[in-house]
Design goal:
single chain; 311 residues; alpha/beta; eight-stranded mixed β-sheet; two-stranded antiparallel ribbon; globular
Length: 311
């Protein structure tokens, strides 16, 4: 048995951004269908000028819910919560993606929002592993040469980005200290970033999740550093910018396969008007320990609308 760092390679299915978009689209469609009133006496009901039995024309207010200034899409009434067995039977992994256009000052709040959504969905009080993916940080085999930054760049210097990550990590440490997250980890941190990050933490990450892309072997420098720091290395197939602004606009808009929540470009188009900016995405997976079967897997996403007015 080797005393080196453990490297766990996750099975590769479809990329997370494709899985997320397809899942959201299917969820929206199912919720719209579930909200469609049954025809009465063989006649379609006309609601606000629309045939209410036509899912494509159902007003978004039928299948969403407004809680103060927070719009749930779809409404929480369409969600089925909880696990089928006792909590102790599961390994629950949560990965939070902070997205490129988010404000550093909002990151702590995003941690709380995301973990609360997952805990409520699964009806549990803790998760086994919480991994954080910070925007602007990507690892590859050449990370020591180019800083590991890909297309997921943020408008900030490396120093400012790392300072913001250290500050936000205090919220992760709080969740860990409260027993909400039993293990904590980061994604895409190479040795150079870890050397800057680790000394500034109270509770160090014990997991580093790496997307090795086309490489099948991690760099030796990463392996040696992980062994030295007792870091567990995991591999993944996630996109760091998992929900681009244009993709979200298409999902919620009035175009083909759109949900009809956001208004189109024409003056008379129905829906919410304004620019929508994704803030975070959280992915959760609940695996039955003794069978290795994924029982529950899903995503939550949060976005801000700059000018929320309905037509």
């Amino acid at each position: 048995m080797s005393g080196g760092p453990s490297i766990v390679r996750r099975p590769v299915f479809e990329k997370s951004n494709v899985e997320l978009v397809n899942g959201l689209r299917a969820n929206f469609a199912a919720s719209k269908e579930a909200s469609t009133p049954i025809r009465q006496n063989g006649q379609a009901q006309i609601v606000d000028g629309c045939d209410s039995t036509d899912g494509d024309s159902i007003p978004y207010s039928f299948w969403t819910s407004l809680d103060n200034d927070l719009l749930h899409i779809p409404s929480k009434v369409f969600q089925v919560r909880g696990l089928s067995e006792e909590r102790s039977q599961y390994d629950i992994t949560v990965k939070l993606f902070l997205l490129p256009k988010t404000s550093f000052s909002d990151w702590r709040r995003h941690f709380q929002e995301a973990i609360t959504a997952v805990l409520e969905e699964l009806d549990v009080e803790s998760v086994d592993l919480l991994i954080v993916s910070f925007p602007g940080i990507s690892f590859d085999a050449d990370s020591e040469k180019n800083g590991g930054c890909g297309s997921n760049r943020v408008e900030a210097s490396e120093s400012d980005l790392m300072d913001a990550a250290v500050d936000a990590w205090e919220e992760v440490e709080f969740l860990y200290s409260r027993g909400v997250a039993l293990k904590i980890g980061v994604a895409e941190f190479g040795p150079e970033r870890l050397q800057k990050f680790l000394p500034k933490t109270m509770y160090r990450p014990t997991v580093d999740q790496i997307n090795v892309r086309d490489c099948h072997v991690l760099p030796r420098s990463m392996m040696l550093f992980a062994k030295q720091e007792n870091l567990e290395l995991l591999t993944h197939n996630d996109c760091t910018d998992i929900l681009p602004q244009g993709t979200l606009r298409d999902l919620l808009g009035t175009g083909e396969n759109g949900a009809g929540v956001l208004a189109g470009p024409n003056p008379g188009d129905r829906g919410l008007k304004g620019d929508v900016t994704p803030q975070w995405v959280v992915k959760y997976t609940a695996v039955v320990r003794d069978r290795g079967v994924i029982e529950n897997k899903g995503y939550f996403a949060s976005a801000e609308l700059s000018d929320e007015t309905s037509s």
